[in-house]
Each structure stands twice: as C-alpha cells, then as structure tokens.
C-alpha cells in the first residue's frame, strides 16, 4: 500500500486512476510516498520522506526542484494536460480584448431603472455601436511559446481566420511536428511583437523567462496591442507593464494574475 498526499483540489477523474486497494490518496495523509499538487507552494520540509513529487500542470516553479534533486526525489509535471482548457481561455481573452463585451454588460446593467421595455430597447440599439470593437479575423496573433498549449492556440487562431506568428527558441522536434504549417516562425522576439495585433504567452517561469516582457519588448509593440497572459505572472515585468499601459503603448492586458495596481483599470481584464 502506497500513500499519496495531495495539495489543492485535484480532479476525481485523475485520482480515480489510483486503485483503492493499492493507494491511499488524501489531503490529510500523514507522511506519504509521493506528493501530488497543483498551485501549492511546496517547501522542502513538506516533501519529508516522499520519493516523488508530481505537479498537475505544465510548470514546476512552485516545487523546490533543486532541493528535491539533492535528496534524490523525482519531480515531474504533466505538460499538455490542461492544454485545451487554456486554449479556450485564450479564445475568451481574444474576444474580451477585441470587443466591448464587459463595458457593454456594465452599461446595460446601469439602465436597470428603466422599466419601459420599448424605451430600454431603443436605448440599447442606439448605444450598442459604442461596444462593437473589431473582428479578430485577419488580425495577427503572436504566440510566444509553441509547446502543447501554444500549438493548440495557434491552430485555433488559424481556424478563426487569424494570421499567426510564433516564437520559441527552445522548440523541440516533437513540438515542431505539432505546429500547423501556416504558423510563421519568427526568430526574434522584438520582431514578433512589432508585427502582432494580439500576443499570447505560453512559457514556464524559469530564470530565462522571468521579466521577459520588459520595457524593451513593450516599446517594440504596435500602439494598441493586446497582451494575453495565462502562463505565469513573473514572465511580465510588472513595472514595465504599468508604464506601457499608462503610455497607451499596450491597449489591453488580459490575465488571471490579479495585482492591486491593476485593479479598476479599463485596459486590464
């Protein structure tokens, strides 16, 4: 019998693969032969006597890999396991960034005092052009990171009629085979951002990528570019991001990493 200690909420679809007769899988497990986690920031003390640490996700930046290596503890991830889910989030981000969906909803809800249906309908018809935004078909999407997620995002964008540029200096042969033939590989990051209307990040948070999107990269962007980050908060230099937004160099920032200084801004989703 083996014990696996879990952190965070792990899908039962995955946990059910561990048969009850061979494994004890629980968040309150004492000790544990292995650890299974998602976003929990694991410390080496929590590793204890575990022989393996598995992350249900693409990166391992919340696991003390170096310390585990010293102890001989195996650390592995599950790249691509959430690729489709992230792809769909990117689609949502593209539409929210290009269309006035959120301000349109806010405007409609602000008219709750109007009880006359005809009056309300007339007002909505008059004002809806304010929130039309623009189509994404024909626009260029720059994909930074062409692994399991990035290749799916590229394929989706091509299906929506977008042009796709891709940048990934560490692209593997396997990943290259997954890429649609219509993706134009760009060897220089500044060139990619300078020729993209939308940019989406799909990179792990490692030493080489922390602060990758900095003042130099923001300055290379077209005015009004939208940046989508469902990868890692640390990839974008927070101070440079604020400068780019304030200077209207960046038109929209879409992410799932809330920061106090970004709250309440119309150009941040």
UniProtKB/TrEMBL annotation:
Family indicated by similarity: Belongs to the D-isomer specific 2-hydroxyacid dehydrogenase family.
UniProt keyword list: NAD, Oxidoreductase
The organism's taxonomic lineage, starting at the top: Bacteria, Pseudomonadati, Pseudomonadota, Gammaproteobacteria, OMG group
Gene Ontology MF, one: NAD binding
PANTHER family in UniProt: FORMATE DEHYDROGENASE 1, HYDROXYPYRUVATE REDUCTASE
Domain D-isomer specific 2-hydroxyacid dehydrogenase NAD-binding: 126-262
Name the record gives this protein: 3-phosphoglycerate dehydrogenase
């Amino acid at each position: 019998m083996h014990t696996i200690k879990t952190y965070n909420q792990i899908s039962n679809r995955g946990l059910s693969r561990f048969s009850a007769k061979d494994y004890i899988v629980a968040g309150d497990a004492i000790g544990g032969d292995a650890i299974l986690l998602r976003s929990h920031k694991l410390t080496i003390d929590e590793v204890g006597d575990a022989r393996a640490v598995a992350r249900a996700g693409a990166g391992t930046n919340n696991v003390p890999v170096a310390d585990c290596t010293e102890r001989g503890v195996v650390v592995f991830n599950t790249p691509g396991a959430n690729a489709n889910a992230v792809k769909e989030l990117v689609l949502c981000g593209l539409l929210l960034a290009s269309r006035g969906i959120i301000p349109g909803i806010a405007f409609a809800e602000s008219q709750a005092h109007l009880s006359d249906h005809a009056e309300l309908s007339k007002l909505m018809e008059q004002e809806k052009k304010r929130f039309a935004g623009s189509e994404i078909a024909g626009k260029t999407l720059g994909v930074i990171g062409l692994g399991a997620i990035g290749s799916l995002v590229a394929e989706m964008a091509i299906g929506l009629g977008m042009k796709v540029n891709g940048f990934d200096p560490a692209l593997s042969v396997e990943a290259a085979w997954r890429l649609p033939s219509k993706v134009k590989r760009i060897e220089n990051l500044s060139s990619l951002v300078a020729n993209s209307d939308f940019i989406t990040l799909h990179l792990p948070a490692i030493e080489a990528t922390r602060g990758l999107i900095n003042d130099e990269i923001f300055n290379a962007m077209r005015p009004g570019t939208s940046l989508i980050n469902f990868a890692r908060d640390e990839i974008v230099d927070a101070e440079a991001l604020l400068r780019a937004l304030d200077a209207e160099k960046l038109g929209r920032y879409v992410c799932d990493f809330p920061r106090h200084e970004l709250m309440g801004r119309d150009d941040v989703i």
